Amino acid sequence: MSVQKEATQSLNINSFQKMKENNDKITCLTAYDYTSAKIIDNAGIDLILVGDSLGMVINGYNSTLPVTLDEVIYHTKSVKRAVERAFVVADMPFGTYQTNIDEAVNNAVRLVKETEVAAVKIEGGKEAAPLVEKLVSIGIGVMGHIGLKPQMINTMGGYKIFGKDGAESLIEDAKAIEEAGAFSIVLEGISSKSSTEITKNIHVPTIGIGAGNGCDGQILVFHDVFGLFTDFKPKFVKHYANVAEIINTAAKEYINDVKSGAFPDENHSFK
Ligand code: KIV
Fold first, then answer.
1. Domains of the chain as residue ranges with CATH
2. Quick one: which of 4, 43, 28, 5 has its CA closest to 206?
């Protein structure tokens, strides 16, 4: 007798448009490996981003800038192997799409071909619209990213909050990306009032990070939300678990058991 696996309906770019229309908040997290992606997919997360934040939480760099396309491809392949329901998006890392459109398109095509991801995320407002349009026209889904763009850290002069003096230019950016065909837009580091205004002014869903409660969905970095990354904690991060502490306690117990000879005991040895 064969055991039939319950059919899982996987999400696609249209799912998010419907969720916005139904006022159904979109839940998103980053993930970079098979095991983590499997856990959050089973928990029911809607979208998983293989973010270039991997440079900081996986590689220990000070910014996202050193991350390469090869690294994003490597991590996206692992995540894709795990996920059955969530929609997976892969970040285009710094330097892979800013220099010229042909190179950007080739890099995005490579990312899609090698990982089978359905959409990529690129940072940028109005200036990124021609690239968004081109990618969408050849069949690659695009998630936009405006406000605080971590790949611009050197010219921004540090991490700061956008939209404090009004949402006008951010709305222009969001509209340009929407008109170019992006299926959703990440709003990062934007005042709550401005994010709410942007969200009301565009038709595609907004996904906030450090952008208050007025967005259509929220995203956080896996290692932040579960308390694994402890170097610093931005104000917008909420720890839903303290996994670093749990691992620390368990690791000490393991060390003691090995030192004392309590592990492995008979239950964990072969006769
Ligand atoms: O790289 C990343 O993880 C991101 C999200 C935090 C939006 O861009």
1. 2-240 (3.20.20.60), 243-271 (no CATH)
2. 28
Cβ contact 61:52 at 8 Å: no
Determine the pLDDT at residue 7.
54
Q: Note the pLDDT of residue 2.
A: 43
List, by residue number, the catalytic residues: 188
Say if residue 8's pLDDT is above 70.
Answer: no
Ligand 1, pocket-test mutation among 40, 94, 186, 215, most atoms within 8 A of CB: 186
Reference 171, options 125, 218, 217; nearest CA is 125
- Ligand 1 centroid to Cα of residue 51, in Å, is 5
Question: Residue 180 in contact with residue 133, Cβ under 8 Å?
Answer: yes
Residues 87/9, Cβ–Cβ less than 8 Å: no
Using the atom order of ligand 1, give the atom closest to the CA of residue 91: 1
